[in-house]
């Protein structure tokens, strides 16, 4: 399947993407892709180093006639989000991505594609390997762990780079040029409870919420998509209040930066309520489907009666506080920007919920382009969960990237874009977590910009990359490199 991808134009880009996608590279397990990138740079005979956290830097001198231009840092991240459909048999730790062409799109077979940020990495690789692309001196920066903590960008020390301009190749709409982004913080609530024996005369059900679109918890948070954890809680809340439902276990969502598509719960109710419970649940499911008819047409909620009762369940008092805390905890857009029309300023994704064996945890990712607003929402979540007795931890906080409307490289990109396409690019700030803000803490004078080809459905198994957009983007990159300002 990857051969048809290799035949796409521009071949230098798609072949490097196929090479990269043959290497397993989930976040926090980048050892193989780091080795792959080190070998790539060394085979080209270019200065290649790995820093103390695992970032790879490859330096290439300017082509003849370009020595008087400013040095450019080309930057992308090596890791990818690993998400797959439940019925897809795939091991991200050992297998390369299986790709295929579908019209104007490159897709993966039941998994994330890794175009985020693999197409950026492939772009840089193609430029490093080239012998006929004019460019100034280049410092290629390949960071690690962007998707689950940005520890690569955070760990990059000052003095490693000399470039005056940074081109971050990690945005997902080819008509946009990004000059700012949101920061984020992980919010984690945990608690323990004393399980009780399952009462006699009970029946057990497994409830499955599935078929949701999912997506990027920053870029897609404003789209009104369903969150499997919040939808599951609506069912549990009603079942508890009306029928004394008790939870045995819950497993919902996976990664903090992915809107959860699925949640599975095992519950019990008194046998006397069995028929009424099923009827009531179906009514609620119908209501939810009606609410999300436009955004979640494939939403399914399945009730399966279990032959074996769970041995233990959450006691009513603990469950009372848990389902109410989950209802109270904000999910989705919290505040829109007052300065940039249409931009989400602050949001939260209730990403992962696990309950069972006397323990519960709720993991969120809170984002904002305003640091004080970020912690305002984080504290609101903290309050909801502390009121039910949870311990709440903030971790992995990273800053946003403050827009610089007077950027010199911004002027270069906007002029080239309009000349090539006949229309103006949208100069925007985004609600995703780009690494520019973090890198700027140690390189405050570096002029930064972010752009990329069109990628849809990032962080979900429907992720796809536009072929025609990649061609447009590649042409854009080559022209930018020709027009880097003089030193």
TrEMBL record:
GO terms for cellular component: cytosol. It catalyses: Hydrolysis of dipeptides, preferentially hydrophobic dipeptides including prolyl amino acids. It is an enzyme of class 3 (hydrolase). One of its GO terms (biological process) is proteolysis. Keywords: Cobalt, Hydrolase, Metal-binding, Metalloprotease, Protease, Zinc. InterPro entries: Peptidase_M20, Peptidase_M20_dimer, Peptidase_M20C. Residues 208-293 form the Peptidase M20 dimerisation domain. One of its GO terms (molecular function) is metallodipeptidase activity. Its cofactor is Co(2+); Zn(2+). SUPFAM superfamilies: Zn-dependent exopeptidases (SSF53187). Its EC number is 3.4.13.18. The keyword Transmembrane does not apply. Belongs to the peptidase M20C family. This is Cytosol non-specific dipeptidase. It comes from Paenimyroides tangerinum.
């Amino acid at each position: 399947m990857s051969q048809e991808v290799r035949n796409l134009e521009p071949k230098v880009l798609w072949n490097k993407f196929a090479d990269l996608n043959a290497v397993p590279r989930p976040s926090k397990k980048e050892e193989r892709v780091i080795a792959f990138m080190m070998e790539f740079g060394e085979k080209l005979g270019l200065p290649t180093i790995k820093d103390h956290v695992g970032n790879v830097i490859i330096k290439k001198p300017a082509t003849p006639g370009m020595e008087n231009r400013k040095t450019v840092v080309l930057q992308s991240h090596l890791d990818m989000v690993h998400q797959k459909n439940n019925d897809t048999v795939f091991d991200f730790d050992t297998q390369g991505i299986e790709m295929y062409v579908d019209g104007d799109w490159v897709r993966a077979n039941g998994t994330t594609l890794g175009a985020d940020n693999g197409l950026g990495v492939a772009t840089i690789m193609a430029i490093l390997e080239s012998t006929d692309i004019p460019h100034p001196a280049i410092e290629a920066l390949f960071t690690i762990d962007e998707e689950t903590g940005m520890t690569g960008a955070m760990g990059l020390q000052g003095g490693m780079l000399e470039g005056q301009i940074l081109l971050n190749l990690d945005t997902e709409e080819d008509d946009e040029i990004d000059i700012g982004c949101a920061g984020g913080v992980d919010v984690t609530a945990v608690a323990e409870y004393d399980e009780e024996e399952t009462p006699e005369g009970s029946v057990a059900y497994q409830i499955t919420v599935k078929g949701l679109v999912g997506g990027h918890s920053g870029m897609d948070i404003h789209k009104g998509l369903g969150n499997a954890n919040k939808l599951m809680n609506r069912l549990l809340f009603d079942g508890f209040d009306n029928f004394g439902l008790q939870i045995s276990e819950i497993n919902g969502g996976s990664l903090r930066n992915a809107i959860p598509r699925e949640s599975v719960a095992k519950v019990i109710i008194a046998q006397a309520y069995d028929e009424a419970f099923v009827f009531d649940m179906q009514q609620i499911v119908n209501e939810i489907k009606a609410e999300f008819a436009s955004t979640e047409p494939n939403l399914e909620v399945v009730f399966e009666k279990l032959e074996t009762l769970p041995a233990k369940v959450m006691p009513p008092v603990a469950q009372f506080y848990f389902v109410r805390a989950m209802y109270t905890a904000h999910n989705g857009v919290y505040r829109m920007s007052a300065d940039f029309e249409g931009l989400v300023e602050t949001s939260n994704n209730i990403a992962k919920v696990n309950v069972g064996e006397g323990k519960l945890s709720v993991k969120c990712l809170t984002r904002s382009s305003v640091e004080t607003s970020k912690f305002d929402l984080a504290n609101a979540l903290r309050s909801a969960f502390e009121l039910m007795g949870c311990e709440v931890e903030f971790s992995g906080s990273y800053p946003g990237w403050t827009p610089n409307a007077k950027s010199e490289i911004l002027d270069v990109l906007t002029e080239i874009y309009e000349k090539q396409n006949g229309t103006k690019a949208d100069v925007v700030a985004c609600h995703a977590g780009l690494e520019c803000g973090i890198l700027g803490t140690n390189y405050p004078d570096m002029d930064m910009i972010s752009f990329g080809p069109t990628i849809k459905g990032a962080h979900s198994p429907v992720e796809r990359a536009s072929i025609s957009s990649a061609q447009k983007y590649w042409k854009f990159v080559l022209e930018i490199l020709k027009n880097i300002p003089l030193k």
